[in-house]
Design goal:
heterodimer, A: about 260 residues, alpha+beta, four-stranded antiparallel β-sheet, 5 helices, 12 strands, about 20% helix, globular, B: about 625 residues
Chain lengths: ~260, ~625
């Protein structure tokens, strides 16, 4: 289940994502750039570095020292966050469900945080093969591909899950789910995603290539959660994917 | 006396004189009878139909003795047979016309039978012996219509024995054809009410004496009371006179007088002594009045007329059980009746008439006591004899599908057709289990809990050689073909076929198959098709082959090749979902398994209900590029 909780208040709002690939839980601020490590503890080494680019500032390097942690081979997210918070300016680091959540201290379109280098990336689960995170800034509605391809106005790409490397895309849907599906996780998730998309549109959080298009839209999603402004929307637990189910189904006895 | 011939000494007697002497004596004899008027039939000579085989002759009984009208004696010793088919002239007596008749009279007349022929002096033959003889003369009257024929007249030279009636076509003389009304018996005296017809005097006198004696003794020919005089007598008690009259009239008067309302007043009655009541002298009427007054006074006595102890009971028959009822007073007997009947044995003392038969025909005859009858009821109803049990004797009305009859017949019908919990039942008719109108009430239940599995239904799958079975498993419902659970493993009915099992649990729908041709096999089936149901997903498989379902699904996407040479040139592919979502999924997660020369992505674009695009931005142009990723949509 991608979205577990979505709340627009207090601003800037946030969503809690459960990775469909591995089940890890991630907190994503709606108007703030950020990155998150894999779930700790982490096996760090003395001299490990982590290079962070925050907003438009020059990258800052965090270096791990032996005295930073009680046990480098088992550094918790909270320990590491504490290290970051006192070392890297403009970054707010927290322990997010056992992982290290790094967020820009600023909000808005310019708010951005990227892991651009460092020897600690592997230990922390950040990519080292050059793949950029699809969402190092705040989540935006729409996905642009430059002049060579038509953009997709319905996709909200979320931050990569560094536990499994999954890239999740939330899809704004304009079709209407059948009434008999009301109350199902499928329908409720669609309504929440559409609510998020509407919130993005209303907040001007569109992909730059799609801002004009979104502004000109006259069609709104039909399946829409209307209670977002009233407080957090919490979805029930998502059913596991088919693969998970299949894995659980070992040959059994008479029953 | 006859005339005499006085022959004398040395008289030369002639033939004529000797014959005349005989004639004189014979004439005197004849004259005597004629003078006395004593002619006719003296004995027998009764005419009857010919014996044994009837014909147109009649028999005349013998010995017959008659005197003809001249006094000549006619005698024949034995039975004579006389034909009436012809008259004495040889003329047939047959009747020529239908509806006609004639009377043929049978007479007998004197005759001579001559014999001993001798030659007299004139050379003439003379029959020296001339005996008495007889001959029958048959004379026929004129033919006339039936009922109007006239018989021939009587003859002066013969005696009529009987008249015989001849009819048209007659072949036999019957007794009814013979009439003796004109028969000339010697003594015929007509009179009323009695007549005489006899041949001899003694017989006639005897008849007269018998008639007289019978008259005197009153056996026959009694005098009518009207022919007897009553000289008159004294008056009745009430003074009504009884004057002279006939006995008939007086008897009628007596009856009339006594039958009248005043009859009792006409009869006198002497005084009768008695206590407490006596009767004074008077008439029967006065004494009846007095008696009636006394009786009414007694009867009208409302109480205390008699004490029961003062009334004798003569004793009576014994009770049914033999307990006697000897002589006693009515009081004692009444007490005994109550005592006898209220005793425990009371029912044994009272008899009962025959009761109707039981329904099976077993009789309930009379001759038994009430106790015996009650005991027989219990015995009859508790009888467990085959074919003669108590249930066969009790009636039962029609009920449901059960026809009216006996309890036995209905039990038999139930036994033959109804469900019995402890007996294997075979239903050859369609059974319907509609259940109640309550939608929650089951129409059919199997209640024992299932620890492993319970075989609910075994269907013989003819003509193939395996069975179809339905099992209630532990949290599962199973249908099998060619598989029987023996408690530890599955047994194939036929190893020529695979075995299949359909399983429905609380979580999934499963089809399983064991395609091996060996038996037995364990509960791990070699092939399985499983559909999970408990995750709350919506699923459907439509006729176009689309598998539509809610919930996450995972597919695969990969791309490998040389990256494009242009700037911002993406590589990508499509990932078709393994099902169709009922609406566009709102989350697509792409988990990269491996990649090369990828700068960003892959990410989803333009997803639909059936799949999504997967696009990635290469790092460098014209470089070996690839990504392989799981695609999870929901």
């Amino acid at each position: 289940m991608p979205i577990h909780t979505l709340t627009a208040t207090p601003a800037p709002g946030r969503l809690i994502q459960v990775c469909a690939g591995c089940g890890a839980t991630h907190t994503i601020c709606l108007d703030r750039g950020g990155q998150k490590s894999k779930t700790g503890p982490f096996a760090l080494e003395v001299g490990h570095t982590l290079v962070l680019a925050v907003d438009a500032s020059a990258p800052v390097t965090l270096t791990i020292a032996a005295s930073d942690f009680r046990e480098l081979a088992h550094v918790t997210a909270a320990e590491l966050a504490a290290k970051v918070n006192v070392t890297v300016p403009g970054v707010v680091a927290t322990d997010d469900a056992g992982g290290l959540l790094l967020e820009s201290a600023t909000t808005g379109e310019a708010s951005r945080l990227e892991v651009v280098g460092g020897t600690a990336r592997t230990a922390l689960g950040f990519a080292t093969d050059g793949r950029a995170d699809p969402c190092s800034s705040r989540p935006v509605l729409g996905q642009g591909f430059g002049a060579h391809r038509a953009p997709d106005p319905h996709v909200i790409a979320l931050r990569r899950c560094n536990d499994c490397g999954a890239n999740e895309c939330l899809i704004r849907t304009l079709d209407c789910a059948a009434p008999e599906l009301a109350g199902t996780h499928f329908a409720e998730h669609r309504k929440v995603v559409n609510a998020l998309a509407e919130h993005c549109k209303a907040s001007g959080w569109s992909h730059p290539e799609l801002a004009e298009l979104h502004a000109a839209e006259t069609v709104r999603p039909v399946d829409l959660h209307t209670a977002l402004s009233q407080g957090p929307v919490v979805l029930p637990p998502s059913p596991p994917p088919d693969k998970t189910l299949a894995a659980a189904r070992a040959p059994r006895g008479p029953s | 006396m006859s005339a005499r011939k006085q022959f004398f000494f040395r008289e030369r007697v002639t033939e004529g004189e000797l014959n005349a002497a005989f004639d004189d004596l014979e004439n005197a004899d004849h004259n005597l009878a004629a003078d006395l008027g004593f002619t006719g039939v003296l004995a027998n000579a009764v005419v009857s139909p010919h014996a044994l085989v009837g014909d147109l002759t009649v028999d005349v009984s013998g010995p017959g003795i008659l005197l003809d009208p001249q006094g000549a004696r006619i005698f024949f010793s034995s039975l004579q047979n006389v034909s009436v088919a012809q008259d004495h002239n040889g003329v047939a007596t047959a009747v020529s016309s239908a509806g006609h008749e004639k009377v043929v009279s049978v007479f007998v007349m004197f005759d001579r039978a001559v014999s001993d022929p001798r030659i007299d002096g004139n050379s003439v033959t003379v029959f020296f012996q001339q005996d008495e003889a007889f001959k029958f003369v048959v004379v026929q009257g004129a033919e006339a219509a039936a009922g109007s024929s006239v018989p021939p007249p009587l003859r002066a030279d013969a005696i009529l024995l009987a008249d015989v009636t001849r009819r048209f076509g007659q072949g036999q003389i019957f007794a009814a054809d013979i009439s003796t009304a004109r028969r000339q018996d010697a003594l015929v005296v007509t009179g009323a009410p009695r007549s005489l017809r006899r041949g001899r005097t003694l017989e006639a006198l005897s008849d007269l004496l018998s008639l007289y004696n019978a008259h005197v003794s009153g056996t026959v020919d009694r005098h009518p009371a009207a022919a007897i005089d009553y000289a008159g007598g004294g008056a009745w008690f009430d003074g009504v006179a009884n004057p002279a009259a006939t006995v008939e009239a007086q008897l009628d008067k007596i009856v009339t007088d006594l039958a009248a309302a005043s009859g009792a007043a006409k009869l006198g009655a002497a005084a009768t002594a008695g206590t407490p009541n006596a009767l004074v002298a008077g008439s029967v009427k006065s004494q009846l009045d007095a008696l009636l007054a006394d009786i009414n006074a007694h009867i009208n006595n409302a109480s205390g007329a008699h004490a029961a102890s003062a009334i004798a009971y003569a004793g009576g028959g014994a009770w049914k059980d033999g307990t006697t009822n000897p002589a006693a007073t009515v009081e004692a007997q009444l007490d005994k009746v109550v005592s006898d009947l209220t005793a425990d044995a009371g029912a044994a003392r009272v008899g009962t008439a025959a009761r109707g038969n039981w329904l099976d025909g077993r009789a309930n005859p009379a001759g038994v006591s009430v106790l015996a009858a009650l005991t027989k009821i219990i015995t009859d109803l508790s009888d467990q004899t085959a074919g003669a049990d108590g249930a066969a004797r009790i009636g039962a009305q029609a009920s449901g599908s059960l026809a009216s009859g006996s309890v036995r017949s209905q039990l038999d019908a139930l036994g033959a057709s109804a469900f019995r919990a402890t007996v294997a039942n075979v239903f050859t008719a369609t059974q319907t289990f509609n259940g109640t109108a309550d939608e929650t009430a089951p129409a059919l239940t199997t209640t024992p809990s299932v620890s492993n599995r319970r075989l609910l239904w075994d269907i013989t799958g003819a003509p193939v050689t395996y069975h179809y079975r339905m099992y209630a498993g532990n949290q599962a419902f199973e249908l099998t073909l060619n598989a029987r659970w023996d408690g530890a493993q599955w047994i194939k009915d036929s190893t020529d076929f695979p075995s299949t099992k359909l399983v429905l649990t609380h979580a999934e729908f499963r089809l399983e198959c064991d395609s091996a041709r060996t038996s037995p096999f364990t509960d791990v089936w070699t092939s399985s098709l499983r559909i999970a149901l408990s995750d709350g997903f919506f699923r459907s498989l439509d006729v176009n082959g689309n598998w539509t379902a809610l919930g996450p699904t995972e597919t695969y996407a990969g791309w490998e090749g040389r990256s494009p040479t242009g700037a911002q040139s993406f590589v990508g592919t499509a990932a078709a979902f393994r099902k169709v979502f009922p609406a566009v999924p709102s989350s697509i997660t792409i988990v990269v398994l491996t990649s090369a020369n990828i700068a960003s992505g892959p990410t989803s674009f333009f997803p639909t209900v059936a799949g999504t695009g997967v696009s990635a931005l290469p790092l460098s142009a014209n470089t070996n590029t690839s990504f392989y990723a799981r695609v999870i949509a929901q």
